[in-house]
Each structure stands twice: as C-alpha cells, then as structure tokens.
C-alpha cells in the first residue's frame, strides 16, 4: 500500500514539473514591449562633442577675396585643420587680424608672413644699406662650383698689363661679402625662411646640379662699396675667395654686425704687384740722356776757322 502511494505521488510531481516547465518556456518567449520614453518638449538635446584629430594642424585661410592694402578682420579668415601644414603657414587668427596684405589674395589662400611683406624674396634677404648685385662667374671664379648661399667671400681683382696699366696687379676689392644666391638657388630670407625651398629630394638634387653649373652669383654688397665692385667687374678679371666658416661671419650678420664698409680703408687697396710676389725687383727706369745743364753756358773754343765746345 505504501508503494502504491509513493508511485502516485511521484507521478503527480512529475506531471506538475512538466506543466511548470512548459509554462516557463512560454513566458520567456513573450518579450514585453518597451515603452518609448518621451523627451521633454522644452529640453534641448546637446550634440556630441567633436573628436579632435591630433594628426591635423591648424592653418589660417581666407574665406573671401581680399583687395590689396585692406585690413583683415575676423570675418575674413578661418582656421582649417590639415594633415600637413604648408611651410610658413600661420596657425592662429590673432597673427593676421589687423594686418594689411600688399597684394590681392583670393579666397582659400593660406596666409604666411610673405602675404604681408612687399618685395621679392631677394629683396627680403638684405638689410637697409645693402644692395644685391649679380656677378658673372665660371667654374674658376665660382670656386670650382662649390659656392653655396650663405658663404662669405672676398672679391679679388686681377689687372693685366696694358698701356694704361704698366704692371700686372692684383688687389682686394671688397672683403667678406655674403653670397645670397648661386644661379637659381637662393638662401634664407631675413625671417629665416628659405627663399627657394625644395619640397622633395628630387627637387633638392636638381637645385644642387644647377648650383654647380651656375653662371652668376648674387652678392650682398654694402652700398658704399657698390661703385667699387662695379668698376672692378668691368676693369679686369674677378676671383671669389671663400672665407672660413669658423670666422662666424654669418652668425655676426644675424646678430646685426655688418661693418664691412666701415672697416675697409678705401684709399688703401692693399695693392700687390707681381714683381713683389715673385721676389724680383721691379724693372729699373730707362736712363735719361745727358743734356746741357741749364744755367751753365757752354764755352766755345775758336781755333782759326774751327770752333769746338769742350766736354766738361
């Protein structure tokens, strides 16, 4: 009797378990619908904050066309983020507001210091009181094609012997002048930016090849010595002697020291004759033929019909 009761209870429990499992499975499949959350009509939704790209650089560009000599305002410029900032570009609008460009600029132009400076890059490579003068050169005058912008050279003059120059001479015309450019390759402007930058390795190699074959050199000549160099270039053959970089001539220039004209004594040209270089005495002047000394009358000796003047 007990066994039958036990079996009956087990069957009831098993049936209840089956019913409960089926009921739970049915409830799990019925997902309750989510009620939408109504936003408050008067609450503004804030936009997501933009993510700054650290690889992009700020560049100031124009948003409208600008006529020459018109002062820039905040409405004329904007800052754009570029992956590669152009060389010399400005990064802040504070650097351009209130400044006046010297030429017409179109919308979309990125601004540099050159946008507000008049003149060519060559004119911005010299200081007041200096003049940029081109001198014709060849491989010998150009120091074997090794001159480069930024070098300092002494300008020497060689005069050949002719009817106006009885002795060949060599002299120092202008000392310690700065080389601004060799051929088409220019150096740095006074702002420290390259006047003719090379944007690729191929372009840099091409500039080096053109520099070695240059036929002109541009020198920064102090204005008081300009006439002397012009006369020397037309009077004889010039040579450019390169000065040592250890003299720090370029560093003195950037420090504001430019006293070449003041330190050169114009009347004293350091003239050197070839006879001095060869350690031979100069040629002696021709002997002057004897003449009757004025103020001492000659004595005439008369012998019959013959007259003679005795030799003293």
Automatic annotation (TrEMBL):
Stretches for region Disordered: 283-312
InterPro entries: Pilus_assmbl_Flp-typ_CpaB, RcpC_dom, SAF
Top-rank taxon, per record: Bacteria
UniProt-listed SMART domains: SAF (SM00858)
Coiled-coil stretches noted in the UniProt entry, renumbered to this chain: none
Domain SAF: 57-117
Protein name: Flp pilus assembly protein CpaB
UniProt gene name: cpaB
């Amino acid at each position: 009797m007990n066994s039958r009761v036990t079996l009956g209870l087990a069957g009831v429990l098993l049936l209840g378990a089956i019913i409960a499992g089926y009921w739970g499975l049915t409830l799990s499949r019925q997902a309750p619908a989510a009620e939408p959350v109504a936003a408050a009509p008067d609450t503004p939704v804030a936009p997501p904050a933009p993510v700054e790209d650290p690889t992009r650089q700020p560049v100031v560009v124009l948003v409208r066309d600008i006529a020459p000599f018109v002062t820039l305002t905040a409405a004329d410029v904007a800052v754009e983020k570029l992956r590669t900032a152009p060389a010399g570009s400005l990064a802040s609008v504070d650097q351009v507001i209130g400044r006046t460009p010297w030429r017409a600029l179109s919308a979309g132009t990125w601004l540099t210091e050159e946008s507000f400076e008049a003149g060519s890059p060559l004119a911005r490579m010299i200081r007041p009181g200096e003049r940029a003068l081109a001198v014709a050169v060849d491989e010998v005058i150009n120091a074997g094609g090794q001159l480069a912008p930024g070098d300092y050279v002494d300008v020497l003059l060689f005069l050949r012997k002719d009817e106006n120059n009885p002795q060949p001479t060599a002299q120092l015309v202008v000392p310690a002048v700065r080389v601004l450019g060799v051929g088409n390759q220019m150096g740095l402007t006074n702002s420290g930016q390259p006047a003719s930058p090379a944007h690729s390795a191929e372009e840099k190699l091409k500039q080096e090849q053109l520099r070695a074959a240059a036929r002109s050199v541009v020198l920064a000549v102090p204005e008081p010595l300009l006439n002397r160099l012009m006369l020397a270039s037309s009077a004889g053959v010039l040579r450019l002697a390169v000065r040592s970089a250890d003299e720090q001539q370029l560093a003195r220039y950037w420090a504001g020291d430019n006293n070449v004209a003041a330190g050169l004594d114009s009347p004293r040209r350091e003239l050197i004759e070839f006879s001095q270089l060869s350690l031979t005495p100069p040629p002696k002047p021709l002997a002057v033929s004897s003449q009757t000394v004025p103020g001492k009358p000659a004595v005439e000796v008369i012998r019959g019909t013959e007259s003679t003047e005795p030799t003293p």
